[in-house]
Model the fold of this input.
Amino acid sequence: MEREEIQLLIISFSIVLFTLLLTLFTLFYFFQKKKSKFLIDKMHDELLFHSELTKTRIEIKEQTLTTVSKELHDNIGQILSVALMQMNILLEDEKLYTTENMINLKFLVNKSLNEIRMLSKLMNGDIVLQASFIDAVSDDLERIEQLKKVACSLQVKGEVAG
Done:
């Protein structure tokens, strides 16, 4: 081989090597750029996920507080209202001041305490409601009838799912 051929071969090899290195650097650059975009998108998605998770937790807490307030008003408030009405009736008429009426009043106060305990346990997730809807309505109607001011009855039609 002649000297010119060797120089031409070296120049050709250098050009090929340079082109190969340039291609590798270009590929590496685009790979890094794509990798960076992927990582940024991943971080954005994680932030979005955590944001949605936080919003969901806040919504669950708000729903829990709404449920607790309804439970306090609808169940415990009604029981204590009936107890207060019974006390007012007893104060108005001394003839009604009997052991049976006092036992009924005691029952109402105990029932409200049990409702508060059940609500407390429910908030902790430790209990499943034990009383059925029909039983709860029946109990409320019995308490109202014990006032001897209103006659109540309950009729259930159809089958009770359970």
